[in-house]
């Protein structure tokens, strides 16, 4: 019941897998793999009472689904063997994910550097269960897609890419417009989860490149244990966060030639999929890979380069989501602070994890210390119509709880009431 990724289509494998299948068939560089389709999910949960999971906590949903029958262990082992048994990425591909109406960016689980049939099966079940996580339920409700019995989840399994450089790219909606690229060191979750403020590149229609270089302090990598032999070394599956060496923090991640090459690749992606795309990409050993492509659901504000704007605003950052809002600042550093957030508060946080989606239903705006305009949180904020300013250094220490602030997500400014 597994489907080669090259043959995947939206109707049986979800929009994310369907897009990757279309790109492979068009000759674009997508890591090879296969898909656990909707049919396998339905077979595995046939005897479970999924209707009662729609309002339950994430842990309860996981327990119910993961208690079900082990999914396709033998088939997974054979398919992984045909790939050479490498570490793989296991990614969600839900029926209502990565559509032109709603991205569900970061709302379902995905896993990197998974090895072996048992671990892949465990990751597949976790992807299935993430349909019923609090953040996915809140996202569907806010997007007008109420939970229903016809929720479906396919799962993509493809070769893991040990990226030296990763990024996100928004291809232009109209001829002559710029391609927007964000890039940083290491694996992609650092960027899409907003845990690092990436370099920003704008490739104009004439090929000219404008860049803003950020202070990229951390990177995510697959840990390679050099004490093991090379065969086992290649299979290391532990992910580690490391400090970026000081000399590389403010060095551009890519040069102008690479930025132009990415823009050209983005155009091929858009042509193959029939419209402007939000593209995740990675570079390993000098080779560029396309990891994901989804329609752009909400355009970001026009760029201001370099980021920030002159004037009396106390703080400046990356313009992340259109609009202006005034409200009380609420410092949120983790789950323990969630209960303190009141409707209309402005979230001020180190970064916004996708698990924080329920807060975006009540918040008036968002200010983060790290993150780029193409991160998952920025995408969801734009879909919800919430002004956001990202990458404001030391925002959680420079602002105080209950201080009245004005967030302008179009210009990237945060002004206190007494400024």
Question: Features of this protein?
Answer:
419 residues, eight-stranded mixed beta sheet, six-stranded antiparallel beta sheet, 13 helices
How would you characterize the overall build of this protein?
By secondary structure, the protein is α+β, with helices and mostly antiparallel strands. It has 13 helices and 21 strands. It has helices spanning 10-25, 38-44, 58-66, 73-83, 117-129, 134-142, 189-192, 230-233, 246-249, 256-273, 357-360, 376-384, 395-398; strands at 3-4, 33-36, 88-94, 110-114, 153-159, 165-170, 179-185, 199-203, 209-212, 218-222, 239-243, 277-284, 287-295, 315-316, 318-321, 324-331, 346-349, 365-368, 388-390, 404-408, 413-416. Strands 14-21-20-16-17-18-19-15 form an 8-stranded mixed β-sheet, covered by helices on one side. The chain has a 6-stranded antiparallel β-sheet with strand order 9-8-7-6-12-13. The longest helix has 18 residues, at 256-273.
